[in-house]
Write a structure and sequence with these properties.
about 110 residues, 4-stranded antiparallel sheet, about 30% strand
């Protein structure tokens, strides 16, 4: 599984704030499953939404492609009107953290920051 960091930004005519978008999009994304996407975690900030997109794929390149494709589909939906994809790339720090956590003998998180 790969963690892909997606950043969404509003266009000038966006009718929803970042907080409103997160409230609406969480359930809609869950109901509108896209290939390879296992989970999406949305976090609103003042002028953008961070969407950590967790993807099952054979490699990092495929994971980024699947995430970008999923977000292209979702951004075509009316419930995401006025929002656009600002970036879509692997979150390597989260990947390193996950690998370190998975090899700890006790399953603990010591040494992981």
């Amino acid at each position: 599984m790969y963690a892909i960091r997606v950043v969404l930004q509003p266009d000038r005519w966006a009718s929803r704030t970042a907080q409103q978008l997160c409230a609406v999009a969480s359930e809609r994304i869950r109901l509108d499953a896209q290939p390879g996407v296992e989970h999406v975690s949305l976090v609103a900030s003042r002028h953008r939404v961070l969407a950590m997109t967790f993807v099952m794929a054979a490699d990092l390149w495929e994971a980024e492609q699947l995430a970008a494709s999923a977000w292209a589909e979702w951004l075509d939906r009316s419930w995401l009107d006025g929002w656009r994809l600002a970036s879509c790339a692997a979150d390597l720090a989260l990947g390193v953290w996950a690998v370190q956590a998975s090899i700890m003998p006790d399953g603990g998180m010591s040494g992981v920051g």
